[in-house]
Amino acid sequence: MSERDWQHVLVNELVAAANPGSPRRAVLARLRQGLAVQRRNAGRLTYISLTGTEGLFRAVPPRDELAAVLAAGLFAWSCGKSEHVAGRNFGAAFGRNLNRDDKMRREKRLIDLLDTDETELPYKLSQAVSLMAAGGVALDWALLIRHIDNWSHPSRWVQTAWARDFWSAPTTEDAASSEQSPPTTP
User: pTM of this prediction?
Assistant: First the structure.
């Protein structure tokens, strides 16, 4: 199984676990509990994070377990309200569907998050995911796993991508004005 395959398998299983018609509440609760343990233990993976999850992490390579468990815990934390949509990274999702004032307030949180080291990442991401879930904003959860896994890369390419996509996301006022303005003809 390739790197991307296991990420998509995991995300598909998470989406199925959060299905409102037949939710697997025990699994989601265990994932939330694992996230809480990661938050208290400075991002370290513990045995409790992997048990009681009905084999969700069986295809995850050992080197990627921490990122996978964190992303799964965040998904469960959002109760599935932040759905999966391919290609939308966390920065784009975090800046989506906001008016100018809300975007300015959220910008401060993003800057704080981008300066976070791996030990505080579970705590800061859970706060940010809560805000996105409240607005029903979807993101690419498989991409989030990859980004968490590369959070400490020396080039900080993840943080750069999140910042770029956050600030390029249009505000609700921008979206409304582009819908109302007539097309220009040369």
Answer: 0.84
